[in-house]
Amino acid sequence: MSDVAPTITLVGRLVQASNATFLATDPDGVRHVYKPVAGEAPLWDFPRHTLARREVAAFDLSAAAGFDVVPPTRYLDGGPLGPGSLQQWIDPTDEVLCDLVGLGDLPSGWFGVVVGVDADDKDVALVHADDDRLRRLALFDIIVNNADRKAGHIITGEDKRVVGVDHGVCFHTEPKLRTVLWGWAGDPLTDDELALVANCIDAVHEALAPWLSDDEIDACRGRAEALLAAGVWPEPGDTWPMIPWPPI
User: Fold this and answer.
1) How many domains does the chain have?
2) Which letter does DSSP use for residue 42 in this model?
3) What is the DSSP letter of 130?
4) How confident is the model at residue 6 (pLDDT cuts 50, 70, 90)?
């Protein structure tokens, strides 16, 4: 979704983000996250000045295919600091669906993903809930090839809907899926999930054409087609780190 730049007012900078990221409000007082292209740090494996476009591409595909797992996001041709993405701020609840816990403290109904040690050298496990809302987001991440699905990028809103944020490093042509959501690896896809994947195949070109290269669009469609043909959740490989760092 593109816009000719609604008037927004910068409120402050979100200093923990790796790229320049700002909290802003529009004339109605609605809060947004504004990511100007000029503040994008160069990456060795993604084309420069494309991260904001990938943020909008993720929303457009999520909406077009019926996933609805990305907050409303538009592209500003002329924001206060230049072109960039503008994503509606979601007030999070205190519901935690992915966490680090001590070994032996795996919550009932949760998946253990990986074990390691924390800053105090204590054994910990990365875990996430077996939750259909989270599963829907994880499925979307596979199709968009999300290279950075951290636990902190998963938000439960006040309406109990689970959404993901930070999609700037998605849609690469090469396999780069890095996620904390591996609990369903090898499981069969449900009929509803297969329908969502099929929706992506139908929607991918129209949704992504304004934002991505032809090669990236073809690769996204190819991932969806392969997922539909396999009918099962992919499993971690050994050619690329499968967990983002830091995972939380």
Assistant:
1) 1
2) P
3) -
4) low
- How many Cα atoms are found within 13 Å in the side-chain-facing hemisphere of 239? 5
203 lies in a domain? yes
CA 36 and chain centroid, separation: 18
Report pLDDT digits (tens) over 200-236: 999 999 999 999 999 999 999 999 999 999 999 999 9
- 40 secondary structure, DSSP code: P
Q: Angle at which helices 132-144 and 214-230 pack, to 10 degrees?
A: 130
The token pair at 33 is 């996250």
In a domain, 114, yes or no: no
The burial of 180, by beta-carbon neighbours within 10 Å (0-12 exposed, 13-18 middle, 19 or more buried), is given as buried
Is residue 180, in this structure, part of any structural domain at all? yes
- The conformation of residue 27, written as its DSSP 8-state character, comes to T
Residue 139 located in a structural domain: yes
In degrees, rounded to 5, the angle at the alpha carbon of residue 92 between the alpha carbons of residues 86 and 95 is: 145
| Average pLDDT for 142-166 | 96
Query: How many residues make up the chain in this entry?
Result: 248
Asked if 43 contacts 18 with a C-beta cutoff of 8 angstroms, the reply is no
Query: Using CA atoms, how far apart are residues 119 and 63, in angstroms rounded to an integer?
Result: 39
Domain membership of residue 24 as a residue range: 2-93+129-230
